[in-house]
Design a protein that fits this description.
By secondary structure, the protein is an alpha+beta fold. A four-stranded antiparallel beta sheet has the order 1-2-3-4. β2 and β3 form a beta hairpin. It is globular, with a radius of gyration of 14 Å. The model has no long low-confidence stretch (mean pLDDT 94).
């Protein structure tokens, strides 16, 4: 059985968290997957953006909850 094609549209580049030794960037972006409502997406991307790692997507509500959790952490 053939896998369905997955499409993604980069709506907004939010920021780069780190760059790997292989040149891939771990990024937070706002992406629409398969024409759906855009979600925040955290994953690594190849320099040419032709390949990507597995990642995680979160809704705006989940992003707000994550922000609140991170604000409570003592990261120093």
């Amino acid at each position: 059985m053939k896998k369905p094609e997955i499409t993604c549209e980069l709506i907004e580049k939010v920021g780069i968290l780190s760059e790997g030794t292989n040149g891939w960037n771990k990024e937070l972006n706002l992406i629409s997957w398969n024409g759906q409502e855009p979600m925040y997406d955290l994953r690594s991307w190849a320099p040419d953006r032709e390949k990507m790692s597995k990642g995680a997507t979160i809704s705006v509500a989940e992003a707000k909850a994550l922000r609140d959790i991170l604000n409570k952490l003592d990261l120093d």
